[in-house]
Design brief:
- By secondary structure, the protein is α/β, with parallel strands linked by helices.
- About 35% of the residues lie in helices and about 25% in strands.
- The protein has a single domain, classed as Rossmann fold (3-Layer(aba) Sandwich), CATH 3.40.50.
- Strands 1, 2, 3, 5 and 6 form a 5-stranded antiparallel β-sheet that branches.
- Helix 5 runs parallel beside helix 6.
- The chain is globular.
Amino acid sequence: MLTTKQLQFSYTRHQVMNFPDFNLQKGEHWLLLGQSGSGKTTLLHLLGGLLSPTSGSIQIGTTELGQLRASALDQFRGKNIGIVFQKSHFVRALNIGENLALAQQLAGLKPNRGRIIELLERLNIGDKLRLKPDRLSIGEQQRAAIARALINQAPIILADEPTSALDDYNATEVINLLEEQAKALGSTLLVVTHDKRLKDRFPNQIAL
């Protein structure tokens, strides 16, 4: 489902990052561990098609990301990759429901209000549908960000440090939500973190 080979990325000629090869199967849940500065977020952005590798390949299903042009890559990402960023990056002028509808439109899909309401309710924030992002607590924003990553039922879900700023209780809640929703969709889940609290949760691990 998600395969990398000989992946390299360089911000400068003197800073070359080499990433391990891996092959994540459909429905598997993985943890990618590494200290700050080890390239975790860079790798996630490569896997999500937000950066292009200096060399090597990333394949999702039968599609090689490097073969897609910009507009085709945007649509492919919207339909096939759900990303939970460290910061939520919502459009502040839009309410939560409109932000989720926008995610559907950017993937070339028609907004599905029923799907939006259902997903927000399953994440216990159904009453936040018409609120602007800044009216939500940090925990509620995180749940809304998970909803946005899941709204298009993407087969790949990438989560960047989803628990780093959370206490033990809320960290457990967020991981439970991600695993539960990924399982319901049959999606491959990759959680990128330096949070050692998650180490025992995932038998499948990649270390940087």
